[in-house]
Specification:
The protein contains 10 helices and 3 strands; from the N terminus they run αααβββααααααα. With 265 residues, it is mainly α. It has 3 domains: 30 residues, no CATH class; 104 residues; 69 residues. A 3-stranded antiparallel sheet has the order 2-1-3, with no helix packed on it. Helix 6 packs antiparallel against helix 7 and helix 8 runs antiparallel to helix 9. The longest helix has 29 residues. The chain is elongated. The N and C termini lie far apart (153 Å).
Length: 265
Amino acid sequence: MYDSMAFLPGVLALIALVVAGVFASIFFDDPRARAVEAERRPEVEAETRPKVELWDEDESDVLDRPANSPSPIVVRPASAPNPTVVTPQTSGSSEQHRRWELARTAFRDAQVRMARYETDPALAIDFPAFNDVSVPEVKTMIAALRRASHLMDASDADRSLGGSPELLREIEDSVVDFSTAIDAAERAARRLKWTHLNEPDRQDLAQIRGLLVHAENPGNTDEARLNYCAQLQRVVRRLNERHGHPVIPAAVTAELDGQARLSLS
């Protein structure tokens, strides 16, 4: 009994210490300490929170932000290169390309129509007014050709399928104007025929037409056909010199000479 009573003072002392600690935490807690701890808590959490690298869409630098930080910046891997923007071909650009190709084809076709009167001997001889720049319709045709050619060159320099939509519309309008001007020049040339020329010019044209028939006739001897070709060239040269400009284009005379030599070979 005396041995068990010997431990009693120690047990009582331990209980007293526990009770004293409880009373101290209740009655002696410092509110300022709690406030400081509350203020420090976000910093501690931020320091321990994992971070990611963010790629600013508008800036090239990489920013460090907390993983759950709200931000309009797009999250990208730090090692990802700046992506190359590739603009896909939209239906609008496809339509513009189609219109550009149509305009370019129409322009080439119109040029071929015009060139026939400069290279076809029969057309050049029968309808010389088409190559006469003193005829108003022909003058308008030449101006339309120059405008369309200028716009085509501008679109080629732009390297963008006809350039801007505004430039493409100008090209389309200019090609239509050029084709319309060719129609008007053809009608004028067929209406005038030789009537716009003076009498010596009309006589020369009649002689040129007759010489051409003889030069192309395979029934004539080679020597005779060569002689007709030489005479034809002289009359064409005389006509052009008298009129002041090529009534018969140089391309026609070259074509005539080539045809004659080919037939003789």
